[in-house]
Amino acid sequence: MSQQHTVVVVTGPTGSGKSALAVQLALNLGCDIISADSRQIYKHIPIGTAAPTPQQRAAVPHHFVDMLELDQYYSAAQFEHDVLELLPRMWHKSPYAVVCGGSMMYIDALCYGIDDIPLVDPQVRQEAWNIFYSGGIDALRARLLELDPVHYSRVDLNNPKRMVHAIEVTMQGGTPYSSLCTGMRRSRPWRIVKLAIDMPRTMLFDRINRRVMDMIEAGWEDEARAVYHLRHLNSLNTVGYKELFACFSGAMSRDTAIARIAKNTRVYAKKQLTWLKRQDDVVWIPYNQPFESTLNLIK
Fold it and tell me: What CATH fold (topology level) applies to the domain 6-114+185-296?
């Protein structure tokens, strides 16, 4: 690999049109697409994760889509490892590779590297998750505060997955998770062009609202019912499925669930935008910019 190879990252908030742009770029650059989406990697939930359509996947090969069963564990560290193994094979086809997704930890892991975190034994991981299953989020917070007060002061205390990860790593290695998080960036032996689609927030939110309804009409409720018995899995602990599961259990009405999905998706988009605004290497592309202008940023 060398600097003549280029990884084009297409990112941005959910609902901004990343997939369509990525396909258009890949077709023009003659390369494959690597999905950087922590939920599209799972099987059985293509509607709720807005996975690439069969037509898009037929037009351009996609990697890391529809790959894992819902009970399989996957992480940003594994994503980094797997993509670094894949890229040398992709370079035989084209000097370009397009990465598309809005899972910011996956994108950061690929572009900057991730801290050396010890692999966690499945039994230890289950033990950490059992804290949540048996005692809820308050039990997780108490255990994390005991094991790693430094990380407790930094982490999102409403995010069970992040807290479980810190707990399991600390339990596995006997060292506080925070002591392993150096935040040092690694250099990559290829050029990175990171693009994000920019549009007025009112337009973005309108697109999100309409997409939620389109997904409902496409059969999202039936898809969610088919995996309802697996609702305890982390792969389904995500916007959309949580609200539909609450509807199925009688905790909220259908109309309320759909409205909550749209609202929580908009909240997620705001978080993605906040993350991206902190990065100084993102090239913001106006949503209505001619495609040729975008292509010129790469070549």
Answer: Rossmann fold (3.40.50)
Question: Rounded CA gap, 3 and 6, in Å?
Answer: 7
The Cα–Cα gap between 215 and 83 comes to 29
Same fold for the pair 6-114+185-296 and 122-180: no
Query: From CA 260, how far away is CA 208, in angstroms rounded?
Result: 12
Contact (CB, 8 A) for 163 and 140: yes
Cβ partners under 8 Å of residue 146, min gap 6: none
Q: How many CB atoms lie within 10 A of CB 100?
A: 29
pLDDT over threshold 80, residue 164: yes
40 and 101 in contact (C-beta within 8 Å)? yes
Global confidence as pTM = 0.85
**pLDDT tens digits along 31-73:** 999 999 999 999 999 999 999 999 999 999 999 999 999 999 8
pLDDT tens by residue, 183-196: 788 899 999 999 99
**Distance separating alpha carbons of residues 290 and 280, to the nearest angstrom:** 23
Q: Tell me how far apart the alpha carbons of residues 149 and 176 are, in angstroms, rounded to a whole number.
A: 9
Please name the helix (run of DSSP H) or strand (run of DSSP E) that holds residue 138, with its range, or none: helix 122-147
